[in-house]
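The passage that follows is intended for readers who have already worked through the single-chain material. We present the inputs for a multi-component assembly, then the predicted structure in tokenized form, and finally a short commentary. You are encouraged to pause after the input and sketch how you expect the pieces to fit together before reading on.
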Amino acid sequence: MSDNDNNTHTNSSSLANQVKLNLIHYNLWTDVKIYETLSSSSSSGIVSPILSGISPTTKETEWVVCKSLDKSDAQLSTQEIESWFVQIEKINVKWHAYQRPKKIIIAIVNDDSTVVYYNIHDGLVKPRQN
Amino acid sequence: MTRDPRHSMDTSRQHDNDMEPAAVDKMVGSDTASGSLEPPIILPVINAHQDPQVLIFNLNDLKQLRNQYGILGVLLGTLSQYPQQNFFLSIPLRLSVYEVVWLVETRRGILVDQLKYRKDKLLTSKQTGKDIKVHVRKDGVIEENAHEYNFITTRNTDKEGRNEELIHEHQIQLQEYIDQYIVSNKQLSRKQFMCNYQNFKYFKELNYYISPGLKFGGDLVLYPSDPLRFHSHSIVRLGSIDLNDIIIGGRLATGVKKNYIVVDTQINSNEDHDHESIITILQKPDTPKVFSVEWAGFG
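Having made your guess, compare it with the prediction:
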């Protein structure tokens, strides 16, 4: 399931690689791995790559789902977000026997190659106080 | 607490993220269980057949709605002499359609056609409404039936309070109110209305105080308790979203110390709801999928 540097042909892998490079070199993450999802639940049929890595601030393993902001992929539904939590739970069970993640990070790649990151928490949580 | 220009009017409020909505309600002692102990509040419907609005003029009802049921509404009353004074408004309190549906569905309120009810109440009122001429002396004593008068008083003849018979005669059924509302709000489909209401109800029953979301670019704003005492925690977006909404909502919410909630009910989009009565749909339990979005703080 873990795939590192080789796939550069398909659209989803280049998206994953773009985010991986951004996480490692710009945001100083470590131990970044790409997990290609086998099934897709987005309406257009494009898979959303899932990454994991260690954030320099939290020093814990975080899960990142990649999306691209071009028009074909801009739609998002709560069913799709739910499917990401389920997929990561399945990956977790295989490797670490953990449960459904409490939060995932969505990485949105713009057409100018900037990447923005947002936290998506499972359920209704209190906002963090700055 | 350092003075934050974003909250210039609200330094007296608490920004306590440890407050859970249910815990605060227990502190205050409000009873948010079934409202069957009290008679249902009259919800006067204005313009019942074209664009129904529920406006509360009765101050006691307003207090009961806010303190006991956590229904906030929006105050509309302004003074025509001071049109720019739009911060501290007065009665009437306007209730949103979702607040009305929740009150009626939980038997805490009853919809009444206000025009008909008032007309009939005047007819059956035993007291006459004659004006009385009085003389107010310089020492403040008021004399009635004086020879010379300088004031006219008009008696309040509505001292009988609720007239239960007339209330039931002029009651508007919930189905009719909802139908009329959907007809006069053409941009809202029946299915979307039901989805929105299910989501509103979900947050309401978690004991959040809910306010319109326009101030923060969302559909609803959630407070853990009375907005006069606490800042809101969340901006809710009802209905379907796209990636741009995540970016805009997440960044905006994080900038004002809140988070952005996306929610969608699992009502099957293939079902035909137009022919099913609203009441049967309301009774189907439906736990929506809820996610909280905030800016990650990096990138």
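Commentary: Residues 31-172 of chain B form one domain. Chain B has nine helices and 14 strands. How closely did your sketch match?
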